[in-house]
Amino acid sequence: MSRSLIAVALVAIALSGAGCSSTSDKNASNPPPASAGKTTSSSQSAALPECPTSETVKAELGFDYGNLVVSGKTKDRTCNYVAPEVGLASIHFEKMPTTAEFNAVKSGHSVGGRKVTDLSGLGDQAFSSVLTTAAGIDTNTIGARKGTLLLVITSRASLDKEKAFAAKLLG
């Protein structure tokens, strides 16, 4: 297994929740409803967004990722899309009410030689993180908080594509 796939797998493991279950992406040809990815910022009890389909992820990030595997349900949801030739894409939603909790997530993405940068114009707070493997392959992460919703996207897509997708998912 290449180092880049191991690094991507480690990021996915770190982002995934404690409970695991999987679902196939049987509706990949149907785009998510208009409300997918949107949540209210005024309520801690707001439902988490549903995972985008593999087809949507492919359209937004530019890579042909595999079937969707979902973990978590109530407070957090991680949507993993695995493709052996391009690694893993991961979209993580979590109910997170405070700036301090967001800053802890951001701090966690600065370890292991990652370069972290604050972003403006995306939610209430946002950052990007880049992990470059020894082979020179970048794994990019966008983290954003809007109201009580944390969104973290990790993939090999460009930061610009991840940021644009994050903006759509945050609504």
Count of spatially separate domains:
1
CATH architecture: 3-Layer(aba) Sandwich
Tell me the fraction of residues in β-strands, as a range: 25-35%
In whole angstroms, the N-to-C terminal distance is 37 Å
Order of helices and strands: HHEEEHEEEEH
Mind summarizing the main beta sheet?
A: 7 strands, antiparallel
Rg, Å, rounded: 15 Å
Low-pLDDT windows of residues: 1-45
Number of strands: 7
Helix content: 25-40%
Under CATH, the topology can be stated as Protein Transport Mog1p, Chain A
What is the tally of helical segments? 4
**Average pLDDT reading:** 77
CATH level 1 name: Alpha Beta
**What class would the helix/strand composition place it in?**
alpha+beta
Going across the biggest sheet, name each strand in turn. 1-2-3-7-6-5-4
What's the shape? globular
Keywords: Signal
Protein name: DUF3558 domain-containing protein
